[in-house]
Amino acid sequence: MAENDSERDTPTGGRPADRPDLAALLVPLCRALVDAERPVLDAHGVTMWGYGVLLRLGETPFRSQAALAEAIRADKTRIIPVLDDLEARGLIDRRPDPDDRRVRLLSLTPEGRRLRDAVQADIRRGEEELLARLPAADRQGFVRALLALHALPAIPPHRPAADA
Amino acid sequence: MAENDSERDTPTGGRPADRPDLAALLVPLCRALVDAERPVLDAHGVTMWGYGVLLRLGETPFRSQAALAEAIRADKTRIIPVLDDLEARGLIDRRPDPDDRRVRLLSLTPEGRRLRDAVQADIRRGEEELLARLPAADRQGFVRALLALHALPAIPPHRPAADA
DNA sequence: TATTGTTATACTCTATAACTATA
DNA sequence: TATAGTTATAGAGTATAACAATA
How far is CA A4 from CA A7, A14, A119, B159, in A? Predict the structure, then answer.
């Protein structure tokens, strides 16, 4: 098996590691990136969740907190303090729907939009500096691959071999 | 504004998002990947940290738990229960250094190596299936970019613009 | 006194369950 | 009764601080 040279030894065999596992590459990178962006978020007085809310509401208003929470993959209880803060600072509009006063209509205020833009500009700048360290060809493939993976509906669970 | 069509508005300007932030692409991907790999780890009875220890000790033995912890970016107190478990199952060797009985010499046993290989084979298979969904060109760039970023000593903190 | 490993404690984040208000 | 939102509680995961053994 595995005589094909261009493909090296297939990982299916499982022995030698031509490279670290994907997760071993991705997870530390994620942690490092989040850490690197924290100073920016702090400087603007928003948490990661708060920024996520601003981003999402900037795309489209939402008709309920639960729907917003699901959209950003957060627990509905988790974003409540976040919304409280953003609302108190006039960054989002949040009011009961007249048609059904149980649900809250959520949207971005002009100030919210301004803050989102300011934060995003800083973050983009930092990210571009990071990407600039990559060869142009790899950079394109990297971003395109991330977009493609992002577009996937889900990543199916890996299944252990039968002889586990 | 934004009359340029091919490049849209540049992120430096900070207004409209030609693509999601890097972190917004990476973080959900990381979470999804870790979730996808959990069944494999469960099937083999190891945690993510346990697998990380097996991987690292497979590369080279360690002369102290603290050094191992730092190498896998874990807190030294965090891996103690992990090492307890791996040792009890005969997957690692862990004994006081005769020269300095404070430190523990850590290495992989043959069984540990076998388990590591089995787990890694499953994980690699799953990861290859995922990568197979990408265009070949992007896949190469993706992996190469990850390796390059992995090789960086650190990611410098992003800095907010002066007018924050 | 300094260092390794360990244990005990506290803290953060997150999810679960109970409550309210509307319908 | 069912649902959106909220609050209170509990759980997991992690880090900090105190401790024991060895140097």
Answer: 6, 16, 48, 47
Distance (Å) from the C-alpha of residue A72 to the closest C-alpha of chain B?
Answer: 10
What does the pLDDT look like over A47-88, one tens digit per residue? 999 999 999 999 999 999 999 999 999 999 999 999 999 999
Interchain contact, B11 vs A125, CB within 8 Å: yes
Interface test with A, best of B12, B15, B138 (most A CBs within 10 A): B138
- From A134, which residue of chain B is nearest by alpha-carbon distance? B145
Q: Which chain A residue shows the shortest CA-CA distance from B56?
A: A20
**Would the Cβ of B72 be found within 7 angstroms of any atom in strand C?**
no
CA-nearest of A134, A19, A139, A24 to B155 is A134
Q: How many C-alpha atoms does B44 have within 13 Å on its Cβ side? A: 30
Other beta carbons within 10 Å of B108: 23
- The pTM for the full model equals 0.86
For the stretch A111-154, pLDDT in tens is: 999 999 999 999 999 999 999 999 998 999 999 999 999 999 88
Give pLDDT tens digits for A11-50: 334 445 589 999 999 999 999 999 999 999 999 999 999 9
Indicate the length of chain B as a whole number: 164
Burial of A151 (0-12, 13-18, 19+ CB in 10 A): exposed
